[in-house]
Amino acid sequence: MQQSVESLVRTLESYRGRDKVIRTVCYGSQLVGGVLTRKTESDVSSQQLGRSLLLFSAQLSHCRTVLRLFDDLSMMAYTHSYGMGAGEEDRALRWISVLTNVADQLYYPCEHIAWAADAELIKVKSDKWWLFGTVLWGTSLLLGILRSLRVLILLKKKLKTCQKDNSGSSSSQLHRQMQREVLSVLSSMADISNAIHWMPPGFLWAGKFPDWLVGLMGTVSSLIGLVQMNADSSNQADIL
């Protein structure tokens, strides 16, 4: 119990970890709130709790939006350090990563403008900026899926080589990497389903997801992110 609490505290002490926890609680609240509000109108207490959870989820989402106001520089530093991907051996991975960085970099100012417009700090309509942000987010997710699929192909080739050389330790490491990429694909697919839901009506299933389904997709993606982050922390601890 104490070890679990200490692990949670360490997670919350880092910005990345805190954001993932807030994201998980946000979508989890939307999932439960959406389920409760679908109950019969005679169940007043469940309806009220459901609405409260949906409001709580909306506030957490707004919290994350505000915190991302300070992410531009770190994203810019990462984009600059990666550059044109000169250190990437595979050309396809290089260009997918470059395009992903461009989409991510452009996403932040679009979201900032939309937030500022909603807060009435600037006199522009926020709708188109939220749309631009959603399109960029979806583009980044789609590129992320393509990148993971490409990595899986390359890892399978390496795995065949290791199996021929009877390298057990290398094979197990490659299997872990492949599992991580599969989880990344599942996470991105869950997020893309929500990104499409937030597109203008008429585009695929835009606007057709009930609150509980948006919460479910987001919760799945968030839990995968937490699992991956915990696995990364364990691997670093093993190295140290």
Query: Any idea what the shape is?
Result: globular
How many DSSP H or I helices? 8
> How are helices and strands ordered from N to C?
HHHHHHHH
Q: Considering DSSP H and I runs of 4 or more, what fraction of the residues is helical?
A: over 70%
What does this structure look like?
The chain has 240 residues and is mainly alpha-helical. Helices cover 82% and strands 0% of the residues. The chain contains 8 helices and no strands. It has helices at 2-13, 15-37, 44-67, 72-82, 91-118, 127-165, 168-197, 211-239.
Secondary-structure map with pairings?
Elements lengths: L1 H12 L1 H23 L6 H24 L4 H11 L8 H28 L8 H39 L2 H30 L13 H29 L1
Helix pairs in contact: 1-2, 2-3, 2-8, 4-5, 5-6, 6-7, 7-8
Task: Give a brief outline of the structure.
It contains eight helices and no strands. By secondary structure, the chain is mainly alpha-helical.
Descriptive terms for the model:
240 residues; single chain; mainly alpha
